[in-house]
Design goal:
alpha+beta, five-stranded parallel β-sheet, single chain
């Protein structure tokens, strides 16, 4: 039994004293007879599930089709034209302080989270010249939202007077799943229209959230956007500043966790796609992968939307037909582009390590990796150059790749004129389309952790849960919940979890929000 699960609860939460704790039901400390579980998918959700199971004596086999772990937060080696070996990834991820369960997973190998470093600001820039920042915004609700409005140049008095406060009331008391009952039938775009939210502030304050889902606000459920507003502004006092890994994802996060899992008896099988999963006679499952079939007591499906759809289609007896039909209806968000450039000269010294952008064509943010990642900083120090990453979310499915890659560079040069004369030493462009889409009216159709088969569970950021979590934290949380569901069957105590508060912060705000529900 790992000491990680014995730490006092306060070691796993942040500064918010109202953070909610979900204590696992009592049970044995370890499983008897060593049950076997296949965890299919080595992203955050699969790693969380594998960790909780392995720590409690379960024999875990972790299957991952890619040659690396971490899923959408994974990384791999590539060689540049100058001979340097560097780590490439699918792009920047912010590790917010509200991500209690993800950070708890990382504490298994880094108790002080010393492999993460905080960025000093979360600046936002609009093409019309407006700038916003979260650096000086109070962290405690409701002063966080009020402080952002007071400090932001994008909120003008005449705009605030034009807003419809009654339409905005649901934001004051976000609860799950109630928020989906109230707002899932409305798009994020239409909800903000109803509120008459100022256009400039909308781009800077709210599209930050919708773009985090790699989705156009017209396609995204307003419930998801409201949930994000609760998590970061009105529900939590952790604030909107965040941490980033000091090293590339494999070195900072997943290589240490892989060693930890193996020390707990986990068999880690990367570059091993699973062909199908079938219920076995007498119970359990047959999992076909790598040219062989193995039997397991339980299975965790920790796949992205397309992977889950595909595996369910290849496994015609999995769970039941209605469940498979729901999985088949899962949708994927539009494609996105990550362009990483190795330049022969540095950016201006006052450029932030991360900059959110709006109005610059398809460019959504700029990361200057050598400002905070050690590997990039070493390359920059050795060459005198810089490592810059550009993101474009929610691109049209038929977008021309070369055209879009060129447009991102043009927008970089517009924002950072010093790059106009820079030579690109090398570049990598990652085009992907595997993030889940949370469409208007789609909540009820999404899979839950539990399936009709109690020995089959699902985890991932696509999973529906009654907890106020999203993005990477939803992946980690549902991974632990999936493990807990299996452990419960064997009478073993599962993982204690934390979330931001599950309702509005104060009675006054909750009372005002209740007016909107009448």
């Amino acid at each position: 039994m790992s000491g990680a699960t014995d730490r006092p609860p306060a070691a796993r939460r942040g500064r918010d004293r109202r953070a909610r704790v979900l204590v696992a039901p009592p049970g044995a400390r370890q499983a008897e007879g060593r049950p076997t579980v296949a965890v299919i998918g080595g992203g955050i959700a699969g790693l969380a599930a594998a960790t909780a199971l392995a720590e409690r004596g379960v024999a875990v086999t972790l299957y991952e089709r890619e040659p690396y772990l971490g899923g959408r937060v994974g990384g791999w080696f590539t060689r540049l034209r100058d001979g340097s070996t560097v780590t490439m990834s699918r792009g920047f991820h912010a590790f917010f302080r509200q991500y209690y369960n993800l950070r708890g997973l990382l504490r298994r190998t880094d108790p002080a989270l010393s492999r993460l470093t905080g960025l000093p600001d979360y600046p936002l820039l609009h093409a019309n010249g407006l700038r916003d920042s979260f650096r000086h915004v109070p962290r405690t609700p409701p002063w966080s939202a009020l402080g952002f409005a007071a400090l932001s140049r994008s909120f003008r008095l005449k705009d605030l007077r034009a807003m419809d406060p009654v339409a905005a009331l649901p934001l004051l008391d976000v609860r799950v799943p109630d928020v989906y009952d109230r707002l899932d039938a409305v798009s994020a775009h239409d909800f903000l229209d109803a509120v008459r939210f100022p256009e400039d502030a909308r781009h800077l304050a709210f599209e930050v959230f919708s773009r985090s889902f790699f989705a156009d606000p017209r396609q995204l459920s307003a419930a998801e956007m409201a949930l994000m507003f609760h998590i970061y502004f009105l529900g939590s006092s952790e604030g909107l500043l965040f941490d980033v890994p000091r090293d590339p994802y494999p070195a900072a996060l997943w290589d240490p966790l892989t060693r930890y899992l193996r020390q707990h008896g986990t068999e880690v099988r990367t570059a091993t796609p699973v062909e199908h999963v079938e219920p076995a006679r007498g119970g359990g499952f047959e999992v076909a992968a790598g040219g062989q079939e193995r039997w397991y007591d339980g299975v965790v499906l920790a796949l992205d939307a397309s992977g889950l759809r595909s595996l369910a289609a290849r496994s015609p007896h999995l769970a039941d037909e209605p469940w498979r039909e729901r999985v088949a209806r899962l949708r994927t968000a539009p494609p996105f582009l990550v362009s990483r450039l190795w330049l022969d000269r540095p950016l201006a010294h006052d450029r932030p390590g991360f900059l959110g952008t709006s109005g610059f064509g398809t460019l959504d943010n700029i990361s200057v990796l050598d400002r905070w990642e050690d590997e990039a900083a070493r390359w920059s120090s050795r060459t005198g150059g810089s490592v810059v990453e550009l993101h474009a979310y929610a691109l049209p499915p038929d977008a021309d790749r070369e055209v879009e890659q060129k447009r991102l560079v043009e927008q970089l040069q517009r924002i950072c004129p010093e790059t106009r004369t820079a030579t690109v030493v090398d570049a990598r462009h990652e085009w992907r389309a595997d993030c889940p889409l949370f469409p208007v009216g789609g909540y009820a159709d999404r899979p839950t952790v539990r399936t009709p088969d109690p020995a089959l569970v699902v985890a991932g950021d696509l999973v529906r849960t009654d907890l106020p979590v999203a993005l990477m934290e939803r992946a980690a949380t549902t991974g632990f919940l999936a493990a807990n569901a299996l452990l419960e069957r064997w009478g073993v105590r599962g993982q204690t979890l934390w979330t931001v508060p599950d309702r509005g912060r104060g009675a006054v705000l909750r009372g005002l929000a209740g007016l909107a529900a009448r």
